[in-house]
Hints:
heterodimer, A: seven-stranded mixed beta sheet, 0% helix, globular, B: globular
Amino acid sequence: SQTIHQWPATLVQPVGSPLSLECTVEGTSNPNLYWYRQAAGRGLQLLFYSVGIGQISSEVPQNLSASRPQDRQFILSSKKLLLSDSGFYLCAWSVAGTANYGYTFGSGTRLTVV
Amino acid sequence: AQSVTQLGSHVSVSEGALVLLRCNYSSSVPPYLFWYVQYPNQGLQLLLKYTSAATLVKGINGFEAEFKKSETSFHLTKPSAHMSDAAEYFCAVRAPGGGNKLTFGTGTQLKVEL
């Protein structure tokens, strides 16, 4: 069966420090991968999605970047964190090419920038 | 482009009462529709989905939703609320052949009172 792993679960980082959040999927090949952010009271905001290795689409201009160095690995990064980067970050995957599948989400990372 | 609107950011019901969470969609083609549940500090879990088969869809935890094309609605219901149903619920839409992205509503926080 397919599983998605996301870590760390919680992170407290100072302003100006770098960030690296990792997400990996097991049990499937060539998944579509997504990074979402939830800020308090603001719903789900799609940050990045990827349909293949090295293929990243950015939904909103911001202080973050994403990379997909391997088929089932998706990394969210920042060189210098801002206070506004605080939030709950969720990774998700879906089956490529089939719109009737939903997403499967990871358990999330709570990031607090201080 | 497709979108969903969730009416009511907060809904409160008594334990044992009917749960009704509203979702209206906008799509130029018959869409695929999803309901997700999120418990505090966790990822989103798929409750149920409509993929153009039966219009009444049954999901996990006793929830169901009915696709009504004439009303462009996909409301989530449960006959009898339980304390464990307290969570945030998200409606989402995906257009067949419309790319790889789910579009989420802004969420409804369900509170269950004794």
